[in-house]
Amino acid sequence: MNTKKYRVEESGKLKLSAYKTDETGKDSEAEALARCEQRQSKLAALQERLYAEGKQSLLIVLQARDAGGKDGTVKHVLFGLNPQGVVVTSFKAPTPTELAHDFLWRVHPHTPAAGMMAVFNRSHYEDVLVTRVHGLIGEKETEARYEHIRAFEALLSSRGTRIVKLYLHVSKNEQKERLQERLDDPEKTWKFNVADLKERDLWDDYTLAYQDAMRATSSKKAPWYVIPADHKWFRNDLIGQILEETLEDMDPQFPEPDFDPAKVEIR
User: Fold this and answer.
1) Could you tell me the residue range of the domain that residue 242 belongs to?
2) How many structural domains does the chain have?
3) How far apart are CA 133 and CA 77, in angstroms?
4) From CA 201, how far away is CA 21, in angstroms rounded?
5) Contact in structure between 38 and 240 (CB atoms under 8 Å)
6) Containing H/E element for 76?
7) Which of 88, 215, 234 is nearest to 150 (CA)?
8) What is the CATH number of the domain that holds 122?
9) Helices 203-217 and 139-158: crossing angle, nearest 10°?
10) Is residue 262 part of a domain?
11) Cα–Cα distance between 225 and 69 in angstroms, integer?
12) Tell me: the pLDDT tens digits for 214-233?
């Protein structure tokens, strides 16, 4: 797949309506699933090099509407990696302590250390999405936060962190089906939140908020990708390829030993 077609350019031009949610590509589901399985060994090998090198890190930002597939992405795309080298953080509604600080305060401690991969299941972008849609911040504060986010991500980049931001793009009908499935399946009812229906009523407002946020913050060092996510198997295949290409471009290397292995004798 040509992953560049899903990347949001820095031009500031973005219309989510121009991106399909139900894209499946040229290959069949079976072919995509086989490719995902084969890719796991590549991702695991690249992660091992990243960890051993201990100089670079990778931050994966997952954003989506409710039932958009964030948890499923973590489960199915990253399942083959060494858990010692991957940290997943989910950002919920901020606590009183977090609200008493700047909006990036709670995020920074969870960014990946050198050699590590970190996944943000929701992220600092909630503070220019939910807050904006619900009128908690105005246009001036929203623009200021975009600027802070750009500076924050530039800081991380300057310290060797590669950032990949993924918006899981689902249709309103697909979201409806997934929410209904949670209601109908006793093993998934625990995932249903009545508040999700209130957020669903604000669909168009969130579309605008996502468009503006991605326009303002997609960059060469921290790009946004719009991922068609109605079909989970296509979503997983595309994200897996993006991560593989990113890690290959980072090209982590095993460090040279500070001794001569040929001269070491184990008795």
Assistant:
1) 3-252
2) 1
3) 30
4) 19
5) no
6) helix 70-77
7) 215
8) 3.40.50.300
9) 40
10) no
11) 15
12) 999 999 999 999 999 999 99
